[in-house]
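This part of the workshop introduces the protein records we will be handling. A record pairs a protein's sequence with a compact description of its fold. Comparing a sequence with its tokens is the quickest way to learn the format. To make this concrete, we reproduce a full record directly below:
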Amino acid sequence: MAGDRSKKLKASEKSDTLDEVHGQLLVSIEKLQQIQDELEKINDKAGDEVLEIEQKYNEIRKPIYDKRNDLIKSIPDFWLTAFMSHPTLSELLNEEDVKIFKYLSSLEVEDHKDVKSGFKITLNFNPNPYFEETKLVKTFNFLEEGTTKITATPIKWKEGKGIPNGVNHEDKGNKRSLDDISFFSWFSDCEQKDDMDENEIHDEVAEIIKDDLWPNPLTYVNNEEIDDEEGDDEANDEENDEDDSEDDDQEDEEDDDDDNNDDDDNGN
């Protein structure tokens, strides 16, 4: 009987110890949660201040971007060159798109005033034989439920024109054939998309234009010029090699003639 009581006491003490440890753990977790809540408040405040700063500098950048656009208009095919030199965007332009982009006079990217709710991409075209509009706008609005509302200017194609390659194709499932790839197919695509991971959806092409191409398109235009210069240098090197080879051949022929003359002299 004494042994049974001893076991019961030990079991009771063990249970009390576990309850005490569990209680301490709950208290620690509650304290951690309080600290975490405090950090979240600071992060929210920091995020708001970052947005305020971004809004401020967007206003400062605007006249500089306008000045840059005015200058770009005087450079033939500037935006076409920038797109075609970009490793990702170039894959989106088919042959018809390239012809249309020759009429693209300016491109603009503008955040919404509160920055966090979205942005828009504006393409201004000179009058062209492809569509009626001279201004195409695609807008991305980030909604609270983690989706993006996308709107775009409807394109009124002129008779016999369309996307791509003169035909306005419909999407086939979730995949497009290579023949259907077109910048204007992307532009006209306004299907709402969900993002369960990041609570925001940023269209990949739009993000590339917004965060990569728009801030400094000269990076890609200069790359195109550098590639051309490298090609010229390689061509010059090849020409120089050919000239050197011809000189060497001529020298070898002259040496052979000298050897033959020496043999004739010796024979005489």
Notes: The chain is about 55% helix and 10% strand. The radius of gyration is 35 Å. The first helix runs from residue 2 to 72.
